[in-house]
Amino acid sequence: MAEPQQDIDEEAFGITDRLVGDVRDAVERGDADAVDGLLDPLHPADIAHLLEQIDGRQRRDLIAIWNAGMDGDILSELAENLREEVIEQLAPAELADAVRDLESDDVVDLVEYLDEDQQEAVLEALDAGDRVVVEQALSYPEESAGRHMQSELVRAPSHWTVGEAIDFLRSDVVLPEQFYHIILVDPRLKAVGYVTLGRILSHPRATPLMDLAEDSFRTFHVAQDVEEVAQAINHYHMITAPVVDDDERIVGVITIDDAMVFLEEEAEEDILRLAGVGEGSLSDRVLDTTRQRFPWLAVNLVTAILASLVIALFEETIAGLVALAVLMPIVASMGGNAGTQSLTVAVRAIATRDLTGANVWRVIRREALVGLINGVIFAIVMGIVGVIWFGSPMLGVVIGVAMVINLVVAGLAGTIVPVVLERMGVDPALASGAFVTTVTDIVGFFAFLGLAALWLL
Amino acid sequence: MAEPQQDIDEEAFGITDRLVGDVRDAVERGDADAVDGLLDPLHPADIAHLLEQIDGRQRRDLIAIWNAGMDGDILSELAENLREEVIEQLAPAELADAVRDLESDDVVDLVEYLDEDQQEAVLEALDAGDRVVVEQALSYPEESAGRHMQSELVRAPSHWTVGEAIDFLRSDVVLPEQFYHIILVDPRLKAVGYVTLGRILSHPRATPLMDLAEDSFRTFHVAQDVEEVAQAINHYHMITAPVVDDDERIVGVITIDDAMVFLEEEAEEDILRLAGVGEGSLSDRVLDTTRQRFPWLAVNLVTAILASLVIALFEETIAGLVALAVLMPIVASMGGNAGTQSLTVAVRAIATRDLTGANVWRVIRREALVGLINGVIFAIVMGIVGVIWFGSPMLGVVIGVAMVINLVVAGLAGTIVPVVLERMGVDPALASGAFVTTVTDIVGFFAFLGLAALWLL
After folding, report:
1. What is the pLDDT of residues B200-234, one digit of tens each?
2. Predicted confidence (pLDDT) per residue in A237-249, tens digit
3. 3-state DSSP of chain B
4. Can you give the pLDDT at residue B10?
5. Domain containing residue B368: CATH number
6. A356 at the B interface (CB within 8 A)?
7. Residue A275 has pLDDT above 90, yes or no
8. Best of B268, B279, B370, B438 to disrupt the A interface by mutation (most A CBs within 10 Å)?
9. Where would one find coiled-coil regions in this protein (chains A, B) (predicted)?
10. Is B163 in the same domain as B139?
11. Residue range(s) defining the domain that contains residue B105
């Protein structure tokens, strides 16, 4: 970086559109040297990102002419839905070269969703020792800490001193690529504490490691959900989370950089589920995307038809006063929006443990009250609009009262639905939206048209 | 942990509803010893979480009778909207005690949004040296790396050896509480590389530090957006991101645990903005929440009225065939949902840099195609429903064609709107939803009622 002051306007990371264009052109020309020259200086994460941005045909052409070839770090960084495609294209020897230097957890991430043939091919490329470790990890349940932990770690007997630890690290022992703690174990390999490398480096050789151990030491069981472990790492500002087996023996660690990825995925999943998109990503094929989005649209069709059935109950009322057909979507739409607001706050608060049994009633009361206050304000606004537009004070009253009812119901449904779904073991991010908008549509149409039938005709 | 196998069913972190209840009871009884006994074993993050779960009156009572008293780590962990309230209740001496041991970046986070009197009170509690550092950080723009960096770091001349570094760390120099790298600087304090502590510990004393430096070394400018730095840390799996001034001198670091918090906040913000909730949190007061949600509901009211105006154009058509009023919300609702799907994927893809100038046209085509395919499927379904329900084949055709049109438009608008907003410098998460549903509502009603007017009457 010759002129760092320019960085202010530059992106902090990633690749430019221009670079993507240059690589594309080089691939079209079949210019292998140009491709090498462009890709060589890039970080594996950036190369993976570039592969995701070009289309399938260009990706195949690029990999075919690329001399340096795919390496394991790039494969690890690649979006899951592209890995199979790319691995298919690699010769067994290339694949073996690529995966050999990866840490055990990266190999597991790489192979866990591959089809059996490909998984077998990758496993065969590993040394016998690494292979056992990876197969052991794959034997733990999906999404468990055991499945995703890194088995490479540094442990030391708890009676060692700083000097003994340094001599051990300087010996020809194989160390993980990155490590930030030494985990202390008793003679039965039970984890009893950990020491940061900073404290080891800053104390005399004679200091016992136990004297330097961190105050708070938590371990996580191999069967624990890995997302929970990631949340715990974030909550307690840990760098390394030790994972133990049934006998409390240390068997691996979840590191903070992996935890960060799990949390990102979790937040992403919540966002996409709230919008009814499932596991969508831009690099999916059109038909895959169509299929992912279909179920939520189908659910929405059913709920929309339910709402229509409510409208159909009042066909005569509408025939008597067509203005009702003009105004009725407003009540439903405001309820839908208010419900989505309450439900989004509730879904996130459940995910971050801010909404619990200890405060659920207070939150429900609060949301109903917020709905009531906003409902009254918008009732007045819409009442006035109704009077001005259609010259009927009673129509103004009807739409106003329906608005208040629907916004209070929206606040209640937006909180109660996700809480109930969560207690039933259903992911509230996935299913709440459909339920809540069904409630607000039905209540909105029913209240507005019902009151109109009672008071206007 | 006597029986870690029980952990599988237990939460990986956090506090139980029962504990919250016990603390509440102890506070109600005014039993200071019981409060101390319950809170003493807890991690500061858990105490902060507990304070967020109880209501304002209980919080005040708790703090008043709590002997151990508030410490800085708890204040740092506390939700922003509660900090002012809690700090107000602390005597100046208590506050001084609480903040004295915090790292500079934690003090900055704590005070940056306090009102001036409270900020002054905290700053006065600091030692002169720390105060200068905090004031310097506060002089950088909000959301910049300079504002949020930790100034405590370990640097060493690039010509040092492992032995010199160890002797330096063992001397009586003041070290950061946590550090994982030593940053190498040239004689003009320009950052030239960094070394992990693990590599220092595992090499003989005579090894030059430069030989152990990491291959890839990136620095970030103090004015760089801190969220971008956090994304870069995640993207490149960094543990420490060095922050430099205009002369490339190292002035601080952003650490991965802080980056994790920034990324969480960013994802949270996107989720809440997509739902039109702004900065909402469960511990806000009812009136604050009402005010936060009001603007989006007001925008929605305007868009709903626009849609109603479209319906009003067709009052005569509806008067001629009331079935239209029954079916029209279905077309609008399906379009709104499909639009939300496309827009959510686009907003997240923009945030994660997966949607760029290099692939925007491909993505737009793709979304339109997905809309077309799903549109045709649902057109057939709804056509059949229309025929069965109302016995009119032509009505089935009208709703089917309107559905196809609206779902294609939803795919286009859902992608184009966020891309255009982003280019205009507006956060697409904040504003896209209103635009897209306005488009799908208007197009939905217009296509359905317009075709009905043309073909049915």
Report:
1. 999 999 999 999 999 888 999 999 999 999 999 99
2. 899 999 999 999 9
3. CCCHHHHHCCCCCCCCHHHHHHHHHHHHHCCHHHHHHHHCCCCHHHHHHHHHHCCHHHHHHHHHHCCCCCCHHHHHHCCHHHHHHHHHHCCHHHHHHHHHCCCHHHHHHHHCCCCHHHHHHHHHHCCHHHHHHHHHHHHCCCCEHHHHCECCCCEEECCCEHHHHHHHHHCCCCCCCCCCEEEEECCCCEEEEEEEHHHHHCCCCCCEHHHHCCCCCCCEECCCEHHHHHHHHHHCCCCEEEEECCCCEEEEEEEHHHHHHHHHHHHHHHHHHHCCCCCCCCCCCHHHHHHHHHHHHHHHHHHHHHHHHHHHHCHHHHHHCCHHHHHHHHHHHHHHHHHHHHHHHHHHHHHCCCCCCCCHHHHHHHHHHHHHHHHHHHHHHHHHHHHHHHCCHHHHHHHHHHHHHHHHHHHHHHHHHHHHHHHCCCCHHHHHHHHHHHHHHHHHHHHHHHHHHHHCC
4. 57
5. 1.10.357.20
6. yes
7. no
8. B370
9. none
10. no
11. 10-143
